[in-house]
Design brief:
This is Histidine kinase/HSP90-like ATPase domain-containing protein. With about 180 residues, this protein is an alpha+beta fold. It has five helices and five strands. The protein has a single domain, classed as 2-Layer Sandwich (Heat Shock Protein 90). A five-stranded antiparallel beta sheet has the order 1-2-3-5-4. Helix 2 packs antiparallel against helix 5. It is globular, with a radius of gyration of 16 Å.
Length: about 180
């Protein structure tokens, strides 16, 4: 009989923002959890997710957005989960285009998976490239009623129960050669 693997929550933090993303505060949370080197290894990815929250999640009806950061480890994998209660990808993209899009098309557009303007989706594309290069073991984004998941050799969309906001999860080897 095998022992159940245990997930170790290292950071569990919630806040809200209207003007800027507190990357220094987030860096301090990683440092307090003895994960400073891991934070710097993942900095570009974490900063991109928080940049997207700041740039795209605030709606016309809400001046601030609540967000949460959870960092956990299990079996040598560090998982960073960042979620917000903002307007979601579909609403954000729909405001910036005259083309009628489905929720799936909006998510694909944000991920730069379709023919789109050159300035769109560059940051999330970096997360996909992190998986392709092996610096990340997993990347997923949930928004509206879809989930996109990328793991080495696999990327797919799935329909999920509709949720407000957006959730991004990135995983990487903890203290491994690639992190």
């Amino acid at each position: 009989m095998q022992a159940a693997s245990s997930t170790n929550n290292l950071i569990d933090f919630c806040s809200s923002t209207a003007t800027s993303m507190p990357l220094e505060e987030i860096s301090n949370l990683f440092e307090k959890a003895d994960l400073k080197s891991e934070f710097f290894s993942l900095y570009v990815h974490v900063a991109e997710v928080f940049s997207n929250i700041y740039e795209h999640s605030v709606s016309d009806s809400a001046a601030t957005v609540a967000w949460s950061l959870t960092v956990s480890s299990c079996k040598g994998i560090l998982t960073v989960s960042i979620s917000d209660n903002g307007q979601g990808v579909y609403s954000s993209i729909s405001k910036r285009t005259t083309k009628r899009l489905s929720r799936l098309e909006a998510l694909a557009l944000a991920l730069n998976q379709k023919s789109i303007p050159s300035h769109r989706g560059k940051g999330l594309q970096g997360l996909l490239k992190g998986v392709e290069r092996g610096t990340l073991t997993r990347f997923s984004i949930e928004s509206d009623s879809y989930l996109f998941l990328a793991e080495p050799g696999v990327s797919k969309y799935s329909r999920i129960a509709r949720k407000p906001g957006c959730k991004v999860v990135i995983s990487a080897e903890l203290n491994g050669d690639r992190l």
